[in-house]
Amino acid sequence: MIPGDPQSSLLARAIPLAIAWGLACAVVGVSLTLLVTGWDYYLLPIAEQGAHPSDPLLRSSGRYGLALGVTAASLMGLNVLYLVRRNLAGNMKLGSLRAWMTIHVATGLAAPVVALMHSGFTFRTPLGVFALGLLTTAALAGIVGRYVYSVVPRGSSGRELELTQVRATAGEALEQLEGELAAEARAAGLIKEVLAEPLPPRPEGWIGARIMTLVRSDLRRRARLRTLRRALGSDAKSARLLDLLETVLDLRVQARQHQELHRIMASWRGAHRWMALTATLLLLGHVYVAVRYAHLW
Predict the structure, then answer these.
(1) Phi, psi (5° rounding) for residue 49?
(2) Would the pTM count as exceeding 0.85?
């Protein structure tokens, strides 16, 4: 957490997180339960599934299969609402971006699983196949994007911080660290040695290469901190100093790579957004065809 974030907001962030992930785990759990109980049905060739006793329940238009389809579509609708909250809501009090991001991630990961179960592992309609494929691709890209999202410096509201704010926060954290090092001679030498090390290079190249540069520098920084943690021990004072050091190092890197981080986030966000919106349009087309021609109701 960036110094200066109000601790009182911790509960406000924890509640939507628990609700979102609880919902996602519940629907995925139900899907996996159906997978286990209906495994013999799903393994059958398509031509033989119609004669199985579970077909009226598990086929995509069956009682459970259709319920899974409606659930997957609902999850996608809730997922896309994050874009509305981010771009259209302005200053309306509709919840913090952090809470909406949590809902967006949870529903984005759960929707492809539920949609796959809805299909019964039989891919019959082009719209459904394309929607599921693009939805799965968007979910995998979302995992990468969530990492980039966590690297970009943000305030308690979830809004990205300006470079001057990051530098000011880094300065405050460094002053706090140096103040606590005054009485810790042994730790001071080791920590100041880490602070004197050169910062990682700025990410360059295409977006994949830039993300890999971020990941490598992050892994090296974490490995260095683990080594230092072993050298200083695990007492409360050392843990406090190392937490402050980690904050300072993260903020320094964020300040140095501020422009590059925003470019990476913008590039990824544009690609991910169009994948999600296209998958949603394909899903709507799939629903229309199913309702119009399959006589579901």
Answers:
(1) -65, -30
(2) no
